[in-house]
């Protein structure tokens, strides 16, 4: 094996010397031609690629404008339908003819707006199918509105308790709800398309900027290299020193720029933490004072609304804290220390104070790592907190184990909770993604995003294994030593 490696190295060395010999024996003119041809060829290729990406950027931008137009048209259609429905109901309640103005003005708008929307999405089969279904729903809603108007005009009064009219009103409401839901589904799909297209646009712009930068650098290097060939051989080392100094200056400038950006981000973090959270606390306090001052005058509904207001304020504060934590991942100077994972887990479990019915099992002795304690604590705290908070029963079992892998440890956090459908395995790591209603469970949707970002900043990875009604297991890798 040793002889084979030596033979391979000898061949590479001989090949390198042969190339150097051929290069040094070329005339200055030919050397100059080669040096100029290489950057010029790269420049031409880069410019061709830039032109292609520029066209792609323009096309993507037109697609974004088109998607925004589709969203505006769908909003216009919904507004026309709402105006028509509102006009009929207002007329039925008051017998005032002026309410029929909005109904009669909305009717001529609906058909052309729907037709325009259909034409705008005709190249999207899924959206076109949804528009076809929407047309049927809208036609049914218009028929019900017309029947309702006729019934009102016959009775000269609007009486939902009347069997025939009440049925029409209920049918109209149900059909309008269906129209709204269909339009919302349509808009959600368009919003997803818009997000994807904006992502492509940003990528295209980034590629454009990068290609322009590469083109400039290649051109400058080509000119500098061509001129340097006509200098004396003894000046070559000086030239290389100058190039190295220039590179160092660029790196120094880049470091200064990066430091300035970090200072700006820190200032922004301070503003968010202070100038946004302080008014939120004031709102929560003010709601409590109002409730205390009006103690006997507030009914149960108003008390519920006050509590809901404070819950929303606390949720917003939690969102701000989560965003601040997310923005700090990877920017904070890590403090490396010896961490006994078993002791760390015991402290975390104690701080979470799980219900007595919950059993948290730590399998086997946990390893000792040289790592950032705070970030490892954030990862375990989020995973354990989620397992407790989202469990569907009063009793639960959480199991923590580990397995050594080369330079990493793989940790596993398993629970016997409700499980997560496979469709959501990737989505749960995206920021603001929650599975339950935010009013049902106080959750910001940032925790798992922070977990993933921390783990990946350490060179590790995280994955989920779960089925509905069969619990969930999170597996993540963490370096043994940083």
Automatic annotation (TrEMBL):
- Kindly state a single biological-process term from the GO annotations of this entry: osmosensory signaling via phosphorelay pathway
| A Pfam family it matches | HATPase_c
Domain (Histidine kinase) spans 271-482
- Enumerate the UniProt keywords alphabetically: Kinase, Membrane, Phosphoprotein, Transferase, Transmembrane, Transmembrane helix, Two-component regulatory system
The regions listed as transmembrane in this protein's record are 32-52, 206-230
Assigned EC number: 2.7.13.3
Q: What is this protein called?
A: histidine kinase
Species this protein is from: Acaryochloris marina (strain MBIC 11017)
Its ancestry begins with: Bacteria, Bacillati, Cyanobacteriota, Cyanophyceae, Acaryochloridales
